Fold:
Amino acid sequence: MKLIQYISTHFIPRFWNAGASDNQGQILFNYRRFWFFSIGLRSLVSLLPMVILLMFTYTLENKAIKTENHLQLIRFTSNMRRTITYFFEEHLDALRFTVQEEEIATLKNHEALSYVFKSLQRGFGGFLDLGLINDSGLQINYVGPFDLRNKNYSDQTWFKETTNKGFYLSDVFLGYRNTPHMIMAVKKEVPDGSFYVLRVTIDIKELDSTLSALDLREKSDAFLINHDGLIQTPSKFHGELLKKTTLPIPEYAAHSQITEAVDANGSHVLIGYAFIEKSPYILLLVKQSQAIMQGWYSIRKQINWVFCISVVVTLMIVLSVSTFMINKIYDADQTRLKAMDRLESSGKLISVGRLAVGVAHEINNPLAVIGENAGLIEDIINYKDKYRDDQQLKELIAAVLESVTRCGEITKQLLEFARRFEPTIQPLDVNKVITSALSLLRKEASYRNITVSVDVPGDFPLVHSDHGSLQQILINLFNNAFQAMQDGGRLEMIVAKINDTHVSFAIKDNGCGISREDQKKIFEPFFTTKGVKGGTGLGLSITYRLVQKLGGEISVYSMVGEGTTFTVTLPIMQKDA
Amino acid sequence: MKILVVDDEIKIADAMVERLRLRGFEATPAYDGNTALERLRTGAFDGMILDLRLPDIEGIAVLQKTRKKTPDLKVIILSGHGNEHDFKICLEMGACACFHKPAKITEIVEALTCP
Structure:
């Protein structure tokens, strides 16, 4: 409940609910539009830089992280390439050294070759077997787990290539031993013009362990393929050993390169690759783009959160500031409207009053002349035999006299209205004033069965005011109430102390009420709803003037059919007293 | 009964005089304050109908002077612009009754004839 109340006071402007209600009809400008405009503009001004900054940050961060990852990957690939190259060079050099150092006779000797094989195995590891082949392709000596002595390799590609180039490095293949391996071979020429080939088989595990030594993150993969795309060392995600990889085969490049691709699962990958020199191998280092950007995504998530909260807070501040501002303007306008209203009506009353009094002064004498002469005519009609029986004349003159009397009544009240008023301020017992004002109406009340109740608090202070004026005010208001009510009505008089300086007298009846339209005019002179036969329309006007003279205010609240309440507010002490 | 009608408005004074005569009074008009005082000095009047606003002297001053010389004179105030305050003063000074113009002749006659 408190939250709702808080929201409604801080975020919903006052004009919102006052919009349709009654006398605030005069709206100086469109608050609703102004409010929306203010919210819109403030939001735009405060949120736009935030959004731009956010987008800018996104782009820059994204780029920076991408660049950094590319550099990192390319560095990694280069290092890796060197390692792999070194691995092959090392093994080739070992073979070359052996061929250079050992006599051919030694190599032909099975015992000696076994010793060499063991030395190589000890020094470098990964050798499966070692064989010596003569220039006709026949394996004349062999150390290893199989019986391959006297096997003829003369028609094999690797033998021909070794013969041509002096060395050979094979792809990985299963062969008939059914384990993935590769062949490395080196040619040795002897002085008699013939040559021999020293050939080793290297377990692929040795190469794989070199690659696995890299500290690769999850979802990253490092492996070798040959130029046809067949996978040479085990890959974690991109295909089976000795099968074609699911990734595209990169274009040849002398240095390490980066390329982007989509893998078999449809996810984006970043590939660092390098062609291993003097070998049929291409090194591939594959990273998931998703994984690379993981760090960025988590940062972005945090930024998004902060942004959302900032937006909400900003909007709340904008809303409450706009509401506060519009409330200030609205209040100021309302106060101004009320002041204007009051000024207008009091100004109108004063000028109309002056005019009326002036007219009354000027008219009263001619009226008296008419009255006297019409009276004389009536007398003549009544006293002279000649006219005594003329009924028509009598009626005519009676009508003139009646009108004169009515006019006289109006001018009399007008002059009373204009009377120089010097209030005699004295402390008054409100109870007594009310009682004396009511005494005039007591008879009518009992005759018409009207209930009159007076409520004055026990400790009510003495009010410093003019006795006659206050009494006149009350009498006028009581009279009006009586005239508005049907027989059996109810009149309530409630006196209350508003604060230390003012008291209020409320006179409430359950009569016919005053329409909203009429409420604006009731204090104007000559405004009456009592018809031709009724009052002069000066009663409330005089009351208004008297209340003003006493330094007070009078207001009316009325609902047609329910009744009317006049409230007179008076100061307890007169200002100059 | 001898009545002096004091009013600067000749038409009003004359009409009033005529109406009083028709009712059996012996009425005489006076159109200003000094004339009124002069008439009072020379003739013995029983009553006076007095306007408060006169061209030469104020009606109240006329009333005041008559109080000293002819305290028995019945004075009826008939004023066009008089207010309750003035009327109150007049009544305190000894006037029998006060009326606003235009007044009913019957009320004036009643005031003149009452003891």
About this structure: The CA atoms of residues 29 and 40 of chain B lie 11 Å apart. Chain B has one domain: 2-113. Chain B has a mean pLDDT of 89.
